[in-house]
Amino acid sequence: MFRTAELGRKVSRTEFEQLTEPLRTELLELQQRLLGADFPVIVLFAGVDGAGKSESINLINEWMDPRWIVTRAYGPASDEERERPEFWRYWRDLPPCGRVGLFLSSWYSRPFRDRAVGHADEAAFDKALERVAAFERTLADDGALILKFWMHLGKEAQRQRFKALEKDPLQSWRVTPADWENWGRYDAFIAAAERLLQRTSVGYAPWQIVEGQDHRYRSLTILTTLRDAIRRHLEERAVRRVVGHAVALAEEEAAPADPRNPSPMDTDAPGHAPLMAASGEVDRLLSEVRRGLPSILDRLPTDLVLDKETYAVRLAHEQGRLNLLMREARTRQVSTVLVFEGWDAAGKGGAIRRLTQALDARDYQVIPVAAPSDEEKAHHYLWRFWRHLSRAGRVLIFDRSWYGRVLVERVEGFAQPREWRRAYAEIRDFEEQLVEHGIVLAKFWMHITRDEQLSRFKARETIPYKRWKLTSEDWRNREKWDQYEDAINDMIERTSTSRLPWTLVEAGDKHHARVKVLTTVCEALEARLGVHINNEPPRKTHADKEKSKKKEG
Amino acid sequence: MFRTAELGRKVSRTEFEQLTEPLRTELLELQQRLLGADFPVIVLFAGVDGAGKSESINLINEWMDPRWIVTRAYGPASDEERERPEFWRYWRDLPPCGRVGLFLSSWYSRPFRDRAVGHADEAAFDKALERVAAFERTLADDGALILKFWMHLGKEAQRQRFKALEKDPLQSWRVTPADWENWGRYDAFIAAAERLLQRTSVGYAPWQIVEGQDHRYRSLTILTTLRDAIRRHLEERAVRRVVGHAVALAEEEAAPADPRNPSPMDTDAPGHAPLMAASGEVDRLLSEVRRGLPSILDRLPTDLVLDKETYAVRLAHEQGRLNLLMREARTRQVSTVLVFEGWDAAGKGGAIRRLTQALDARDYQVIPVAAPSDEEKAHHYLWRFWRHLSRAGRVLIFDRSWYGRVLVERVEGFAQPREWRRAYAEIRDFEEQLVEHGIVLAKFWMHITRDEQLSRFKARETIPYKRWKLTSEDWRNREKWDQYEDAINDMIERTSTSRLPWTLVEAGDKHHARVKVLTTVCEALEARLGVHINNEPPRKTHADKEKSKKKEG
What we know:
- The structure is a homodimer.
- Chain A is an alpha/beta fold.
- Chain A is built from 24 helices and 10 strands.
- The N and C termini of chain A lie far apart (about 70 Å).
- The interface between A and B is large, with 58 and 59 residues.
């Protein structure tokens, strides 16, 4: 694989100097155009030590406008980083649209090192690379231009490079004993590198192997590749915008596909997105077919009710149980992420407050998901959720969430069909990372019927301190009930797995709903912590009743 | 001081229930108005344990719209927090305009605890409180509404409260052995609390002592205080906007003050800002007086030149020296913050690149300061610089900086006179915190004459890959040369202290300028690290020349 990168290719000083000025000019002009573009550029440098990774990054910073470039390299994780899933540190450093991010090794470095030194077997290596590929895929799907340079040196060339550096008093610091130790493992490194390149070199994020020996040859290779890639991507995005409009028109009259086999929808790649997107008709048909069948939501019972007295006792009991469990979780540094979605007026806020009443204000944070800020808009839609992830042992409650992508954004057309369709897989991948990191995740859909919503809206209008909750948007959303119902059914079908289950909450009765939410959270915590708190509701004594009344106040 | 908070005041359940609905309605309505306001609300809860701090925070979250409230409490600092100045964690949690931030103890808790348990003497306590006061002052000056509640319980009442909690199986976890230990120190706590309240209760951030025994009395006190304060502040800000316009008009015809004694300007408090702000005429006069006298900038020699050969040798030498020092700093976790300001085309970028060439891309970050994002605009102007502070051992280079407040924002009128005048003190305080934390700080003003700038602008127009650097804004800025000169002189006079020195760089000759910057950074590092790297330029051998040529390429 690396044969062609050991040819000893060179560029003479004269040639290099002749090319410098036109190339710099082109790069700077492209960067100006890039500033107004709707995508970021992500450039990754990995490879053999001494093959010019840092030098290349310095050169890009020198030749282009450094104001719009961020450079990131990673040492050992900080405790704030260790307390979140591994990719949190990469998400938080992603450049916004119009900017260039230069990354040194970064998301490849741990899997690669683990494999090269033998800490991970091939299966573990492949699994880690799959995660990396999914990460790059989701960025590319969102429009990012991803370039990856593998800087190569032959074994002997690396030895000579180290020797040369060691002789130069100003450069000798660059060579450490660890470098020589790694040199001893050269063959194992190369074997791991080959697998890495094979598994993660894909159309939307290709690896380019760069012969690193001659700094002029290397620099020209990287800079012209970068130039061509930015230019091509700018053009492709422009074409895509035009095609996108055409496809949107075509969708209106497209032929229906198999309505009961929606799975291909969430695996469309950017390469064939325009072809796959022509399925507005499919959605409509699917929706009609479903209207005839009972959906997941339709099957929910609507008669689950808790009388006031039982509610008071159960509430106090579950809150006490939750409190004990959360303190245990805090001690053991286990975090919890709770997601609340539901119809307007289904009682998300009330359920959340019954949870937070049982918690210490030090330990939880409610994140109300409203319109994104301009910084958030300039990133992948998941970026703003990654940035909220809290430190270990905390409870993070999302009042609405990333599922907005497949609900409101789908129904209102803020996201293109190809965008919300691939979101199911992106969301599963995101949540998988939370769960793998040991975080307790629970997702609630608060369900009420259309009639129940109407009577709640009307009630809200009469209570002064609840009136603010009701906006004209609520009424507008209500008109799109059927479309939302389809979106909700799809969401639950595609994002409820045994590890990432949705809890459907029959919220027609608020008492029942609140207790069900509390109980579900407690059970998830018990399962995660391997402890069991007495689950039997206490007998109703007079003292109990008084106590629960107090807590209600 | 706390006598009046031990009166055992109570509110009956009936009274409380009667007041609930109107009060909630008022709070929610105010919160709606607040969303469109140009200031944040910062509410701090401190005081005796068991007096209802967490409960009050929960209640506010319950009665108001929790979507626009952030709640923050602080445990031990994370390593990312320890690697920055103490206030970094508070800056990053500040709510944006229109939102409410609820803080548990937070910036008071370390000074208070240190004093109460005897780790700090009175002088150290006072110093810590001064820092706190300066922090709150700068937020209040920026428009923030700050409310501080000291929740009080008498010694016996606290004991009874703990006992009662311990008896309740659902609440007993709230009482820890540490609580009882603290109870034993009750008198020392109260003594420290009295001093704390006296020193930090000021008009713009008053403490309100709240009797904590009865939860209904306590809740009503806090919520009505909050309601009244938000209402009053909304009105005051509205009035201030009107008055602000009037003052701006008045400034045009105001009488001059003593032109050689500008010091009162940077101590105006928000209370009398409109009166102090009428000094547009003062500025003009001052500027004329100065025009007759040589200013700091005028006194800079313009004939400092390094010939190409000496430059090449000195550059290579200083870069090598810098590299050694920075690696030592990295090892010892000493961070460096470098600030570059200067005339357009004075060579900031070139000087920065000569620095970064000597560094490892893993260790530095260049922060180009452009227009703020909407999240940044919704915060204090220093917020966006605090958020950039890097982890320990890194080099952070600001290409333009917080000094924009007293340069471009002053000259262009983006900041009101009272805003940029108080910025001198705010900036000194910010930089003091960096230096106290052990960070090496160097600030460079890159100076060229007006004629030199003109010839550089003209040269830029002819070099294709430099043309993008020259914008119409550069030409516009150039027309305001005199106003900028005044602003620069003021800036240097007021923000150059022995601990926070400005380095004026005679940048008419780029070679001289780059070497001076490198040497200054090296010297600052040597002083901080207590090491000395051979400072003599090496003799010019042929090999040296070749080497430095290579580095230039």
